[in-house]
Specification:
Length: 271
Amino acid sequence: MKKRFYVLIQILFLLVLCTRFDNVMHCQNSKQDMISPKIIELDQGCKLVLDTKIDTTDSLSIEIITRIRDIMPRIQKLIPADSVTINLSISREVIPYLGVGANTTGYHTILFNFDPQNPNFKVELIPRGLVHEFLHASRFRMPQWQLTLLECMIAEGLADHFMIELLDGEQPQWDRALTEKEIQQYLIKIKPLSRIKHESWNAEFNEKYFNPWMLFGRAGDDPIPRCTGYTLGWRIVENYLKAHPEARASSLVFAPAEVIVGSTPELIVSK
């Protein structure tokens, strides 16, 4: 169940407008198929696997590899992040307004695409995206983890807060999708749905809950704005951090969802 969730809980600090790689080792050119990807060993049993399109001798690739090497010890100092493989590929299957796209397929594999030809691509987006994805890889090692809409929101909120904790910067735009009035409205609206436990990631959960609430929104008589779940997740984590100034996103990596949501009155369930 967890592995299915990881595959779909995308983001590079982002929406899952990106597409999963069919296989990071796969290339269309038959000659490239004969070339083994380059593997770079990182700290704590992690490794970076570069697809065959990446020329490790050019300046861009050198900068990207250096940035990844530099960020890894900082991530690993704050959260459990051992034995993770980063599959890095050049691809056009990215979020258009970022030029990158990523997801975590289980707690041990991060798939990361980047398109150097995309005018919006910046090298700094790669370490930022990896910080986000490593929080996912760590969080889903949590004992007694369960698939709920509440957990989806908190996982994304934690990942983006961790990105800001480690690298500073602005709150990502997908976490600013609602007005203050809408945040209150949708916190109340999502409450009855948020704790429904799902045994597996199936079509019903994806179509009824994940896609409309976390990603694409919904039109019609009962509309949901795009990225509502991301914005609510950011707010839930933000509320906890404000109520507990000593806490950090990194310190909450294994905190149960019910603990974190305890600082958001609209979602508290009376006992």
